[in-house]
Amino acid sequence: METLSINSPTKDSTLPSGLQISEEVEKRYNVVKSVGEQCIHDDELKDLLAKKAAPVCYDGFEPSGRMHIAQGLMKILNVNKLTSAGCRVKIWIADWFAYMNNKLGGDLKKIRVVGEYYKEIFQAAGMNSENVEFLWSSDEINARGDEYWPLVMDIACRNSLAQIKRCMPIMGLSETEELSAAHILYVCMQCADTFFLEADICQLGMDQQTVNLLARDYCDAVKRGNKPVILSHHMLPGLQQGQKKMSKSDPSSAIFMEDEEAEVNVKIKKAYCPPDIVEGNPCLEYVKYIILPWFSEFTVERDDKYGGNRTFKSFEDIAADYESGELHPKDLKDALSKALNKILQPVRDHFKTNSRAKNLLKQVKGYKITRVMPTASSTDKEDLSVNTSSAASSSDTGLQVSEEAEMKYKTVRSIGEECIQEDELKNLLAKKPAPICYDGFEPSGRMHIAQGVMKVTNVNKLTSAGCQVKIWIADWFAQLNNKLGGDLERIRVVGEYFKEIWQAGGMNNDKVAFLWASDEINGKGNKYWPLVMDIARRNNLRRILRCGQIMGRSETEVLSAAQILYPCMQCADIFLLEADICQLGMDQRKVNMLAREYCADIKRKNKPIILSHHMLPGLQQGQEKMSKSDPSSAIFMEDEEADVNEKINKAYCPPKTVEGNPCLEYVKYIVLPRFNEFKVESEKNGGNKTFKSFEDIVADYESGELHPEDLKKALMKALNITLQPVRDHFKTNERAKNLLEQVKAFRVTR
Q1: Vertex 129 angle, CA 126 and 130, to 5°
Q2: Strand pairing of 468-473 and 512-516?
Q3: What are the backbone angles phi and psi of residue 26, rounded to the nearest 5°?
């Protein structure tokens, strides 16, 4: 991460770049620089102002309750300074961020009301709106989601989870607290905002500095020349001792913009203000950061016996008098109350005389301030048990299941090694003639037979039972998981190659839709991303980390922020696609369960049914699944006959042992479902035999009647018959041939 050091201003009017600075630019620089307690970096700011007449300055806020003077008066002062120096100010009304941070219970309608109330205050209190734009984050992101979300994902890919967690202070949290997945997404989005708004300057509080530095680091990572200048303003403390900032949940710590005169007086009277002590004295801070910048002076009125009236022009003089005891706390407080009330009076008047403003304030005062995230504990989550089949042919609702529905049920159920829940599946098939089934894949290299033959078999079974199958080509997910180095063009090529294989391999496409994730999400972003955010805010980080298996990762690995975003998005896919059935591998089970848990959280009745198919192992001993990075572990869909034979010959196949025997697994899950039989030809080991069930194959193999050599020969023959149409297609079809050449050249990366 970039160091938090600050450049000291240059003494002359020449920048290190050699650019001469005019007197006018020096003046503009001094005005802009005065906004920040810290600037990263001064020379960059001068250079920017010398080159650009109207730089874009990004400021923002979460609409989250009544506005206190730190948000109100300080922002007005800063914005007016920036516009006077020629800056264009974009104020980001971060409604989606307030939602993710569970402000106002995550109620977007309430958050919108608060945002409008804020705008009324800024207008009434004197913000110069001539070069100021108020932009609602939800509206802007929805309008240009195809620009925004790939940027968020790229930031997530390039930063580890640990790096993102270090930015938690931007939300008033520490990285050791119980975090939700939304807190990780929030940081990536706020970093993206800087670039989305084309900001030259990030003008936010000191508490936002870590994420602004993240934006500068991202510039280094993507080799972007113009880094945003960070101008971090001071954070006003609360009124009581030790309160680092004002708190909306503790009204005694803050002065609100529409507080009555009497309320301001009482709060200042009770404020911490130790005699002769400047450090940590909130009353003096308010004078320094609000009153002096607002009026350019601070007038103290007192009896002659206490020194008489005095008007201060600098904070140094005020601090000197206060430390010496010449300025008494009571006199300081009285003068501060008077000055604040003078500033706030136009706001009070506006909220009393303007009916819209009055109505907004009434609503805002009625809202309860919240911060606790709506995440269920792990003990509240649905048990991962599996229903056993119902004894009767009726569902738990008492619905009679017809013979046709029973047949459809048996066909669909045969796909899954596991089904959650069987009664729900029967009920669905009895009520809905064409249920939607969601399947998907990450385009990430050559296709092995587990992805090819098994998917063709499963999809054809589903469509024969009347299901509509939506196959999700998860290009953005492959990018998040850094497949093929995150190169979307290559990922797209692989996706097209996969489609060619399924077509050649005999997939019935009548009721099948291939959907590119990036295209569908961009087209329905205003529906999709709020869903992702809601899933993220309802699940703590520990729960999402448990889903790492869906990406082939463990929760103990060093993860990027992208691997937190991935499960939330995959969970949202199910609802975006309106899926009734999730037909994915056993390794995807945890995220499918997350979708069912989400239904319980939001009181959604129709939970997706989880139909998890078996995961084919690799060819060698102990390989739980085929690996594209180890060609000897997998048979690829366009492997030549000789390649298939060599791989099966070398495959692990211990005599008389069924458990953990990959050759027997391929017979069970590929050959038998494809041909409804398994033919073994042998001259010396009992002659030819045709098996109709896997149980018979197992019995012969365990007894030694079926020899490994004969099993392997029969398996080779069946696989080669299955794969021959695919080979022919990739030899005769120019498009397919070209795709395969490209895919073979791609390096498999993780």
Answers
A1: 130
A2: parallel
A3: -60, -40
CA neighbor of 501 nearest in space, from 729, 715, 302, 192: 729
pLDDT digits (tens, 9 = 90+) for 194-211: 999 999 999 999 999 999
Phi-psi map region of 534: left, alpha, beta (phi>0 left; psi -120 to 50 alpha): alpha
Report the C-alpha gap between 210 and 187 in whole angstroms.
10
Minimal CA–CA distance to 113: which of 361, 386, 347, 311? 361
Q: What is the rounded CA–CA span in Å between residue 369 and residue 477?
A: 36
Tell me the per-residue pLDDT of 478-521, one tens digit each, with 9 for 90 and over: 999 889 999 999 999 999 999 999 999 999 999 999 999 999 99
* DSSP-assigned states of every residue in 355-391: HHHHHHHHHHHHSPP-----PPPGGGSPP---PPPPS
Q: Is 591 in contact with 548 (CB distance < 8 Å)? A: no
> What is the dihedral sign for C-alpha 392, 393, 395, 399?
negative
Q: How far is CA 287 from CA 70, 294, 296, 339, 402, in A?
A: 12, 10, 11, 9, 80
- Strand-pair partners of 180: 540
What are the φ/ψ torsions at residue 639 (nearest 5 degrees)? -60, 140
pLDDT band per the 50, 70, 90 thresholds, residue 435: very high
DSSP string, 115-132: HHHHHHHHHHHT---TTE
Which residues are 645's β-sheet partners? none
CA distance 265 to 123: 24
Q: What's residue 5's pLDDT? A: 36
Angle CA 607–594–416, to nearest 5? 65
Between the alpha carbon of residue 711 and those of residues 218, 635, 653, 669, the distances in Å are: 55, 17, 9, 15
Q: CA-CA distances (angstroms) from residue 596 to 467, 579, 580, 608? A: 20, 12, 11, 6
- Structure confidence by residue, pLDDT tens digits, 63-98: 998 999 999 999 999 999 999 999 999 999 999 999
Q: Which helix (H) or strand (E) holds 60?
A: strand 56-61
* DSSP H or E segment with residue 226: none
Residues 519-540, mean pLDDT to the nearest whole number: 96
Is the separation of the CB atoms in 454 and 625 below 8 Å?
no
Quote the DSSP letter at residue 631: G
- The predicted model scores a pTM of 0.91
Task: Give me 311's structure tokens.
Answer: 């008007």
Burial class (CB in 10 A: 0-12, 13-18, 19+), 388: exposed
| 3-state SS, residue 2 | coil
Phi and psi angles of residue 424, each rounded to the nearest 5 degrees, phi first: -65, -35
Using DSSP, state whether 334 is helix, strand or coil.
Answer: helix
Q: DSSP state, 513?
A: E
User: In the 8-state DSSP scheme, what is residue 300?
Assistant: E
What six digits make up the tokens of 585?
């591998």
CA distance 657 to 661: 7
Tell me 560's DSSP state. Answer: B
Torsion angle of C-alpha atoms 202, 205, 207, 208, degrees rounded to 10: -20
Segments in 508-640 forming alpha helices (H): 517-523, 525-537, 541-545, 562-576, 589-601
* Cβ pair 322, 332 in contact under 8 A: yes
List the end-to-end C-alpha distance of the chain, in Å, as a whole number.
24
